[in-house]
Amino acid sequence: MFNRFALQAQDTLSLSLRQVVAMAKDKSIASRQASTLRETHYWEYMTYKSNYQPQLSLTGTLPGYTKSFIQVLQPNGTIDFQPVHNNNSSLELAFSQQIFQTGGTISGSTSLQRFDDFDRNVTIYNGAPYGLGYIQPLFQFNALKWDRRIEPLKYNESQQAYIESMEEIAMAASGYFFDLLLAQVDLQIAATNLKNTQSIMKIANLKFGMGKVTKNEILQLQLEELKVQKAAGVAHRDMELATYNLKAYTGLQSSDQIRLLMPQATIGMKIETEKALAEAFQNRSDAIAFGRRLEEAKRDVAKAKGDNGLNASLNSRLGFSKSGTRLGQVYQSPKDQQVLELTLAIPILDWGRQKARRKTAMANQQFTQYSVEQDKQNFIQKIITEVNLLDMMKGQLLLTAKAEQIAAEKYQIAKERYVLGNLSITDLSIAFQENDQAKRDHINSLRDFWGAYYELRYLSLYDFETDQKIIYNKM
Fold first, then answer.
1. How far is CA 304 from the centre of its chain?
2. Which residues share a beta bridge with 30?
3. For 302-314, what is the mean pLDDT?
4. 56 near 152, Cβ under 8 Å?
5. DSSP annotation of 124
6. What are the structural domain ranges in the chain?
7. Where found, per UniProt (predicted)?
8. Which CATH number fits domain 7-49+146-299+357-469: 3.40.50.300, 1.10.357.20, 1.20.1600.10, 2.40.50.40?
9. What confidence category does residue 474 fall into, taking pLDDT thresholds of 50, 70 and 90?
10. Pairing relation of β-strands 55-61 and 65-73?
11. Pick from 170, 176, 184: which is nearest to 261 by CA?
12. What distances in angstroms separate CA 106 from CA 36, 96, 100, 130, one per listed residue?
């Protein structure tokens, strides 16, 4: 499992930022949840596509045996109970195909029925060798037509949302990485400071014996040592907690200690705002959702207009049928049958209900257009801001790296001057603090830079390092 990761020493696992991100995408619970959700959307899409495919079904009653008494109305109005002992079995094979252009349904069937009267020892067959029918709704909303326009958008949206989920995992993993890295650096700082403080204490004690330093300076150094010991304890606690959080999120099943490698300070690439915007509008689920929301608003208006209370349906059927005492008679010169029906339901008075529904749908459509336009503006501004932020973080990295170097040199000089006796303990303590803060500031600048980079990947779904779209295996 860990063949990709180099072991720095026995029981110590060295990991880079990219390796931690890759582990989280591969093994984390969040990645499994994202994969499951993608699979759910896939099967929902397959369900939608099946609506446009022919449906074939076999139905029947085998057997339909009855032995009982039933009530029979007599000519004089009285009820008499007669014995019934029969078998009424039937079998039908039928297909149907919906026509999305018109919203109609074409169907066909073949059926056979057998009736056995055991009391009279009579058997009768009835069947329809074949029949064709067509049902066409008139003046009604065609859901199939609109689904064909909207459902593919929803599916593409879900596929891109899966990629976004994986990039969100990368951002979260980056946060856990830098939490642990900062804790490890704090622990390293505390260990170094403790060693330096103890070394200075030895020198100060010698000077105190010669009367060259005051008791107050000795007490100040002792206080500094206690502070460093306390900082080491806090850093160790934070490191244990950060290690647990990182392992839990990435799915790392290992008892080894983790040593994080310092990530590179920059990425050799130039990100153009126009390129980031173009990729975002091509790749993001939000960009697909803009069009999908507008189509859904149009669909709702069409539905409000179609469901106007005027319902009509044309039903036609052509086929053959026949009955007989033998099975073969059903299929010998069957008689033709035709059905043609036009059903109507016309509202006379609805007190403006349909008009109100139509106006509501049109108002919602207008609101959706405004909302989408606003979301587009926010979408564009977010990407522009993130590109600018990433450029700014590059500059901050250079500044904090330089500040760390200067603070380290200043601390070294202060330590040497204190040993020589021409620097106060207060100035030495300030140099301590500035050096520690400069190291933390540099780590935080690295966190901000890589956080902005992964945020931009998430917003555009584009890998600017390799100059290609971010893709995962599609279902």
1. 32
2. none
3. 85
4. no
5. E
6. 7-49+146-299+357-469, 53-99+104-141+311-346
7. Cell outer membrane
8. 1.20.1600.10
9. low
10. unpaired
11. 184
12. 37, 6, 11, 14
